[in-house]
Write a structure and sequence with these properties.
Elements: H1 3-19, E1 23-27, E2 33-38, E3 43-48, H2 57-83
Antiparallel strand pairs: 1-2, 2-3
Helix pairs in contact: 1-2
Keywords: DNA-binding
GO molecular function: DNA binding
Pfam family, one: YbaB_DNA_bd
Length: 89
């Protein structure tokens, strides 16, 4: 294995370890809903505040989408040293 392959392997292992702990959280502006997703966008935690019943579904969905976008950005940031800066965007 040459030095370049070794460096790529090191970066990949580091990225894999960091990805185990990556999540993103978003909250609605009124605090009615807060949620956390992993890098795949899968729901990990969900909190409903007192006013959640009055919250429009579209607003709740927008909150979830913000968390998913943040998780995807974190994923891209972690993987950039392995696959290149502009590979995923």
């Amino acid at each position: 294995m040459d030095a370049q392959e070794s460096e790529i392997g090191r970066r990949a292992a580091e990225a894999q370890e960091r990805l185990k702990h990556v999540a993103a959280t978003a909250s609605s502006t009124d605090g009615a809903v807060a949620l956390t997703v992993n890098t795949a966008g899968a729901l990990q935690k969900l909190y409903f505040g007192a006013s959640a019943d009055e919250m429009p579904r579209a607003a709740a969905a927008a909150t979830a989408r913000r968390a998913q976008v943040r998780a995807a950005e974190r994923l891209s940031d972690i993987m950039a040293p392995v696959i290149g800066e502009h590979s995923g965007r």
